[in-house]
Every structure is written in C-alpha cells, then in structure tokens.
Design a protein that fits this description.
Layout lengths: L10 H6 L20 H10 L2 H6 L1 H14 L5 E2 L6 H8 L1 E4 L3 E4 L6 H5 L11 H14 L5 E6 L1 H10 L7 H9 L1 H25 L3 E6 L7 H18 L3 E2 L2 E2 L2 E5 L6 H5 L5 E3 L6 H8 L4 E3 L11 H15 L6 E2 L12 H17 L1
Parallel strand pairs: 1-4, 4-5, 5-8, 8-9, 9-10, 10-11
Antiparallel strand pairs: 2-3, 6-7
Helix pairs in contact: 2-4, 4-7, 8-10, 9-10, 10-11, 14-15
Length: about 350
C-alpha cells in the first residue's frame, strides 16, 4: 500500500492529527446510501442488503459512488456494524420493514459462555477483500476509513435480537447479571480489536468506532459498560502501520456529557451528534483531540440556502484555527435527502475555507 503521505488529498488525516490543513475536510456518515439513485440501482442488482455487504465488488462500487458525485475528503468502507456478531454465529438477517434481526440472540448463560471472537480473515474475509479492493480503486485520491460498532452497541443487538426502543433485555442483564454482560463485552472487544487491525492491515487509513446506543446508559454505567471497553480497543489497535500513523475516532450518539472522559481514552477524534454545541465541546476538550461533526442531518431536507447558513454556523462555532475539525453530520444522512443538497453542503464547507 502506498503511504498516506502520497495521498492527493490528506486533509482528513491531517485534521485528525490536528495539523494544518488546506481546507476543513468533509465526509458524511452513511454517505453511500439510499438517498443516491445509483446506490439503489446497485442494491437492486445485488438482490438484498447482506449480499451487497458481502460482495467485495458491490461494496467497492457503492463506496465509490458518493466520491464520483461529490468533492468529499474521505471514503468510508461500505459494510455494516452487525457483520461482527454475524461472524460469531448469531444468524443475521434483514427483514423487510423490520430491520436487522438475529436468529439466535444471546439470552442463555451457556450461549454467552460459549461465545468466541472470530478470526477476521476467515469469517470476515469478504470485508478484508472489500477493503483491499476499495483501497486499490481509490488510487491515492482520498483516505479510506474502516469502522466497527462499539462493544456495547453490538451487545445491544446481540442480546435484544435486533433493534429496540427500551433495551429491556440488555438492561435486565446489566443490572441483574452484569457478569454475563461483561463476558459478552470482553469477547466482543477482542473481536473488534482483531477486526479493526485486519482492516488496517488490508488498507484502512483511519478507523471509527460507532457507539450508537451508549447514550442510552446511565452516567456511571456508560463509563463502566461502554467507554471502558472502547478504551481497550483504542489501546489494542495498530497506531502505526506501513510507516503511517492510524487515527481513531470515537462516535457516541447522545454522549455529549462524557466528552472529557472520551477525550482521555486515547482516541484522536471525537464524533459529535447534533445535540452537542461544538464550541462548548472544543472548550471542554481543548487541544487533546480533534472534533468531527456535527450538522443536524435534518438540515439537508431544507434548501441550499438554509444548508449553507447552517453549515456556516457549525464552522464558525468551531472557531479560529484551521485544524482539528472534520466536518460531518451529527448522525447518518437521511434516505430522503435530495442528492443536490449534499452538493450544496460540500461546496459551502469548502467555500468557507476560501473566505477564511
């Protein structure tokens, strides 16, 4: 793999390292998705979502589609956070209108005790093939981001059996049998470390951990059952590979109250959801980490004029200093977003750089 120093555009990596950049870099969570007609066409050709994820060629195709449309500063691997528990034998399926489901959720003590971390090059080899294929196709244009779900977020799906509004099964386990939850989290942490390291070895130039459901935890429970395990992941993943440093980003939806603790985890960047004031976040974490975010995805449903104004508010709130900020949404892009509105956003962010 060619080193990151040969990238045509390395502003994303430089921002995460809090180095001087040419412009504020921008990429979007879920930037390859159903708002793009070309994505929908590829997904239809694939037949179903899991086939789309498990085919390296299809995964490469949809990863590159938003980069063909927009002047984005990073690509992110097209995959799903639930590939890890699927590789652990829980039987992932996607039911129409009902989202992801596991055939064998973790409810019984024997099943939890038998849980093991999969070899990423074996059970998740299709992801590694996709990373290699995408990295080659990018040809040094922009960096490639690898990712995983956080152990607690993955555990929510593994215990609940799918999505949940009240998390009753995992909360019952957390307060009634915390030893079982810790067992799930420990094994999943091992799996995530191996999974992210394999992605880095195959060409990922930065990694992101999505803690989507950490914000559903009580204050002390978050530190014990979510952040502690993400801290172990940051300590266990490759910090350097092929002569380059590998930045890491932690994104905790609803995690604004724990910014100081997240900043102390060893990560290079914190992803902010749209409920957090980015100016306040910068004051709280100082120069310890970069910040990523944090436009409300709903803004993209408005108009180009409103999008430009709201993007400017985020950029101005971050403040002076052309470093340490990666512009992004505060969560994944809505499927109802008009594609031309993303053009307006990207152009607004890059034009703001010119005025600065």
């Amino acid at each position: 793999m060619s080193p990151a120093s040969r990238l045509k555009n390395d502003n994303f990596l430089r921002a995460l390292r809090r180095q001087t950049v040419d412009h504020t870099p921008i990429w979007l969570m879920r930037q390859a998705g159903r708002y793009l007609p070309e994505y929908c066409a590829t997904r239809q050709r694939a037949g179903d979502f899991l086939t789309l994820c498990k085919s390296p060629d299809f995964a490469c195709e949809v990863t590159l589609q938003p980069l063909a449309r927009y002047d984005l500063d990073a690509a992110i691997l097209f995959s799903d956070i639930l590939t890890v528990p699927d590789a652990m034998g829980l039987g992932l399926c996607f039911e129409a209108g009902d989202g992801p489901r596991f055939e064998r959720p973790l409810r019984e003590e024997w099943a939890i005790n038998n849980l093991t971390a999969p070899d990423p090059y074996d059970r998740l080899g299709y992801v590694m093939d996709a990373v290699r294929t995408i990295r080659k196709a990018l040809d040094g244009s922009v960096p490639l981001i690898g990712f995983s779900g956080s152990p607690y977020t993955l555990a929510c799906y593994m215990v609940e059996g799918g999505g949940s509004k009240d998390f009753c099964h995992i909360k019952r386990m957390l307060y009634g049998r915390p030893d079982l939850l810790r067992r799930i989290l420990a094994v999943t942490t091992q799996a995530v470390i191996a999974y992210l390291n394999a992605q880095i070895e195959c060409g990922a130039q930065a990694v992101m951990i999505f803690d989507t459901w950490g914000g559903s935890l009580a204050h002390t429970a978050y530190v014990e059952f979510s952040l502690a395990y993400m801290r172990d992941i940051v300590a266990g993943i490759h910090r350097n590979w092929a002569g380059e440093t590998i930045p890491s980003i932690l994104f905790a939806k609803g995690g604004g109250q724990w910014l100081e603790q997240i900043a102390a985890s060893g990560c290079d960047g914190i992803g902010l959801d749209w409920t957090t004031d980015i100016a306040d976040a910068r004051r709280r974490v100082g120069g310890r980490v970069a910040l990523q975010g944090n436009l409300d995805p709903g803004v993209l449903l408005s108009s180009p004029e409103v999008i430009a104004a709201e993007a400017r508010k985020v950029l101005e709130a971050f403040g002076a200093g052309n470093t340490g900020h990666v512009f992004n949404l505060g969560h994944g892009i809505s499927r109802f977003t008009p594609p031309e509105h993303v053009t307006a956003l990207v152009e607004s962010v890059h034009q703001y750089k010119a005025r600065s």
